Amino acid sequence: MNDRLRAVSGQIIAVAVALLMGAIIILMVGESPVRVFMTLLRGAFGDQAKIAGTLLQTTPILICGVAACVGLRGGMFNVGIEGQLFLGGFAAAWVGFAFPLPAGIHMLAALALAIVAGAAWVAIPAYFRARYNTNEVVSTILSNYVAVLLTSYFTIFLFKRPGGWSETPPILPTAYLPGIFDFSRLNGGLVIGLVLAIGAALVFRYTSWGYGVTMVGSAPKFAEYGGVNVKRQGFLVLLLSGAVGGLAGGVETLGVHHRFMEGFAPGFGFDGLIAALLANGSPVATIFTALFFGALRNGSLLLEVDTGASREIITVIQALIILSVSAQVLVRRRGDSQAGERRWKF
Amino acid sequence: MSNASGSSTPHNAGNNAAGANVAGPDVAGMAVALTGITKRFGAFIANDGIDLAVRRGEIHAIIGENGAGKTTLMNILFGLLQPDEGSIRLNDEETVVADPAVAIKAGLGMVHQHFKLVPSLSVADNVFLGMEIRRHGLIDHAAQIARTRELSERFGLRVDPTERVGLLSVGIEQRIEILKVLVRGARTIILDEPTAVLTPQESRELFQTLRSFVADGMTVIFISHHLEEVMEVSDTVTVLRNGRRVATRPTVELSKDELVRMMVGREVSFDRRPREPQHGDVILEVEQLWARDDRRLPALRDVNFTIRSGEVVGIAGVAGNGQTELAEVLSGLRPASHGVARLKGRNLATFSPAEIREAGLAHVPGDRMVRGVDRNASIAANMLMGRQHRAPWSRGGVLNWNAIGQNASKLIKDFDIRAQGSGDAVKRLSGGNIQKVVLAREFTNGADFLLIDQPTRGVDIGAQEAIHDEIMRQRAAGRAILLISVQLDELAALADRILVMFNGRIMGEVAGDDADEDRIGMMMAGVAVPEFAAEPA
């Protein structure tokens, strides 16, 4: 309990430090930090529609965040969620516009193919990781570029909708994710995200499989010694992580855009990864960090209207959060070992 | 009771008997004098007002259990830590040892437990690394070699200065570390557990070297928890317990029993354990077993032995002679390249680690911090490993944390693990209690074969005794036990038979009842001792 409290307060301090540094940068571009932050807050939570907008932005970040958490639990750093999201998004759109099916079943089929596409896409790095111990960070990052360009190719050359835009034909309404309010595009994807987050937490905590995976992630040699098949579990966990990443793309397509277009969901995969890291790999805590990043994104829409700051400032703040969270990990590690022991080893 | 021989006596003993041998405020003529050193880490007091005076030209042993504060004290002396209170005098001069550079300049040198050598460089190059002798701006290899040779001959540190370090044994690496300290001008040398990696013969040679230092007017501070060595080599002993100095006494006035009592604070026995002879069924058979190490070199060469139920078979040997690989092959973590190991008649070659456990293996691993536990997880989660798929801990793949927690609480009680509860993170426990967590988990698996690797490495003396008790209980319960240890006295206390490993081979076998340290030591160093080889138990 004490540990958890320390971890949470550490993350909060890290975010606070990042916001403080962000404030200094805002001062440097000649804006008032108070005004910028108030505008962000108003843009994110100012009225019903804005809150719904924030939740809409939160949804893909949350699902991608759960994808990252699944990987992190098993010691796998899936940096390819962005690519899995794109492929999943495209796969869902394809089922949506190309295969007329009864309502409900259509949507489920589209989501299912999105899941399969995400898993299949990460299967390549996962295989090389399990078989040849290839660093999954590098291979999943690289797979992002291929995925984004591949889906562009599909969209522009194979399935382009007649007209000027680089997008597929619209999906059939039978494949739409049901909406929640009529004044917003907010949809059932948020529910999927929440269920996934809580479900993942329960699986890791309360199943034998989840216990083994958690040990593979936190003490691989111990897990191996205890009879857990480390390679197989690592492979499975990456596959599962990719599947959730694909699902995020499917939800975005079926819930928001109702078609696949080039650059349809830029950066959600990476935001999800950051949200998961800020949450220390806990799926439930990711709900809150995803909400935080969703609010930043949605709030920033108002920034350029109401203040002199560019909305890129939120990218800067995100980068500062990454920096301060990683710095905090270093500081904490040093606190763990005795100072003497550390210097002992130079 | 302990204070009868405690902090007030050494004063008198010193004044009356040896005259100059004084610990305490009178610190003139001392190579090193620490006064009232206190060091806190948060609420934990690692050193509590410790006085230590080391006379010039003596070998001063510092002994104490893990966590007694030896290493902290030496780190403070060497400038790696700063004390919260107290003062340091080096060669009669009040010194603030802000960092190791200050200590080195004052003539202090430290030989650490873990060596820092460059394997691709020659011995001489390693010795002079960072302070090369130069001529016309280039490294003067000839001068470095000559200087290294001169020092090594003077102090009996036999090394060939031109040889590459990567090819040398641990014992020689240690000599190089000592040479490094010498060329940096050390007159007071601190050695942290120097014999842990040595054969008995190598230890004796090291002691010769230490005596030659003293004869040369130098001073040696020697950290150990090996009592025999302390008795053999030191002039003065300082005992630490729980961060306090219990006593400083001339070694001649002390007996081994007295030392143990001062270290632990009570009576402890490490004599050979009494036992009933048992001849059960053969549980483990190992035939012509070969295996490779991580560098693909042969690490096990034609190993053969059997273990019966109710029998403790010890494996002696200097660390790194194939013991790790043997344990890994038997537990399925490393493939054998040739030969078979059979557990209750079943060939283990095709089994995964999980299947071997299923077949009846319990394994107490040598590197328990890495293999034996997840330090960040709770005691309960650590005790679950290996049984997470079995009832009552799980049903249908769903864990029952209630049952897991209750079981853990019961084991904590049964094995006397000092923890607040089963939810405690393992990293909060002491080394001995962490080992008890591993033992509790493994010994309650119902396995017939116990593979126990270095059960008491880094464990307090008090906990060592408890662990030995537990191993003997398992023997009495009819388990077949393979006990791998680098500590001969441990094997002598527990094993029915001792096999000695050298360079991946079993050099010979000695009955536990007459475990002769010299014979075993010869075999540990690779000398075949025919009359003892393969003697039946």
TrEMBL record, chain A:
List UniProt keywords, sorted A-Z. Cell membrane, Membrane, Transmembrane, Transmembrane helix
Regions that span the bilayer: 12-30, 51-73, 85-101, 108-128, 140-159, 186-206, 235-256, 268-293
Quote the subcellular location field of this record. Cell membrane
- Entry-linked Pfam families: BPD_transp_2
What molecular functions are annotated in GO for this chain? transmembrane transporter activity
What membrane topology does this protein have? Multi-pass membrane protein
Q: Which GO terms describe its cellular component?
A: plasma membrane
Q: What is this protein called?
A: ABC transporter permease
Name where it mostly resides: membrane
Q: Which domain of life is it from?
A: Bacteria
Q: What organism, scientifically named, is this protein from? A: Mesorhizobium mediterraneum
TrEMBL record, chain B:
Localization in the cell: Cell membrane
Q: Name one GO molecular function term.
A: ATP binding
UniProt KW keywords: ATP-binding, Cell membrane, Membrane, Nucleotide-binding, Repeat, Sugar transport, Translocase, Transport
Q: Name one Pfam family in it.
A: ABC_tran
Give every ABC transporter domain span.
32-267, 284-528
Zinc-finger found in the keyword field:
no
Kindly give the membrane topology term recorded for this protein: Peripheral membrane protein
The protein's matches in InterPro entries, at most eight in alphabetical order, are given as: AAA+_ATPase (IPR003593), ABC_carbohydrate_import_ATPase (IPR050107), ABC_transporter-like_ATP-bd (IPR003439), ABC_transporter-like_CS (IPR017871), P-loop_NTPase (IPR027417)
A GO term from the CC aspect: plasma membrane
Query: Which family does the UniProt entry place this protein in?
Result: Belongs to the ABC transporter superfamily.
Which PANTHER family does the record cross-reference, listed alphabetically?
CARBOHYDRATE TRANSPORT ATP-BINDING PROTEIN MG119-RELATED (PTHR43790), GUANOSINE IMPORT ATP-BINDING PROTEIN NUPO (PTHR43790:SF4)
Protein name (Swiss-Prot/TrEMBL): Heme ABC transporter ATP-binding protein
Query: What organism does the record attribute this protein to?
Result: Mesorhizobium mediterraneum
Lineage, highest ranks first: Bacteria, Pseudomonadati, Pseudomonadota, Alphaproteobacteria, Hyphomicrobiales
